[in-house]
Known about the structure:
The chain is α/β, with parallel strands linked by helices. The chain is 49% helix and 11% strand.
Amino acid sequence: MSQRFLSRDRETPMLLPPSLQDWLPPDHLARFIVEAVEQLDLRRIEESYECRGNLAYSPKLLVALLVYGYSAGVFSSRKLERACSDSVAFRFVAANQAPDHDTIAAFRKRILPELQDIFLQVLRIAKELGLLKVGIVSVDGTKIKANASKHHALSHSYTGKLTAKLRREIAKLLKMAEAAERDEEKSGLDIPAEITRREQLIKSIADARKKIEATEKLRHAELQEKYDERMKKRKEHKEKTGKNMRGREPELPDLTINPKAQINLTDEESRIMPTAAESFVQGYNAQAGVTTQGQFIVYADVVQDTNDKKQVKPALDALSGLPDDLGKVEALLGDCGYFSRENTELCEAAKITPYLAMRRDAHHTWLEAQLAKAKEAPEPDADAVTRMAHRLQSKEGREIYGKRKSSVEPTFGIQKSVMGFRTFFLRGLENVRAEWKLVCTAYNLKHMHALAFG
């Protein structure tokens, strides 16, 4: 019978030692990320190590391992440890070393404060390669699950009901213990352990209730401040003009505790978030600003607010604070969730032209938009909203705003569907903010590789 298949020899040793450089093709993503990380300035991380005990793994090796892991959809420290043995690409990134999961997890926490700087250094690499042009930026938010279950969330009203229920159970267990001692019968339960567990749970619920009340107190202070400010403006207007300001007088804020105000026992800084797909998730609102040219993320943040109305000012602050060598943001695109008179004025004050949709547009209206007659330019003394409304209905404005959907929304799709990042692995607002920077850094390098090698 003629030979038709390759031999399966697993016994003969290699005559020459294998080279790591022969393991991957020249244009592999792992090579690109390793080369990019080698260009990063990580001296602050390196200098934080003390010269004692065993030699540590190189910070550049571990940063490359984390970034490649996030770009390839491997986020867990245990899976990263396993991949360093099982995957050729991961073995290349780890230089044929095998850091354990404790080392990887500890290093990820160690570099959290430095991830903003790493994020900006990667943007500089994209700029040097001629791939990044900061000009028009689209902002949007996406809901990402927290490392916590929504079933571990408690509302202020339910904490009282649950505490009362647990106290009734403790009373019942105490009666069962007395009956068991008197009748010398065993109930089959470890009654002292059951009582202790419920007492600890009551204490945890009491702590959670106090935290809810503290959060509500901060919310009440914010409402009161806004009310006082609006009333002050009305008073100043009347003193100046002798007439009441137009519009309805603001109502006194409701300063009672919202019975639906919640906290999660696993990650108390996460919030119940509405989503289109799953109705509600326990998570965070991840924000991103993406350039319309090149599709790079230049702004990344995570907030607890379920909507985007308050996110324009933080975005403007971050975009205005980008290093000069990266370029200047000229315009900001956002859907109607970002629109308000205040946000429009903030954009103009920052010398960034706003393109914030003022309402939801109907679908399939291309022909109507093309045939619509251009409106007359607003008066020179028109307010910011009037100027933006005219800008959005112009042909040039529609073309610019039309780039929003083709920039920021595909970016979220790649992060969630291609990279597979749908749940934060860290807990707490500051930690997930840093982890989101790591995700966005991995995306930028992955996207840079795609642009460079096609």
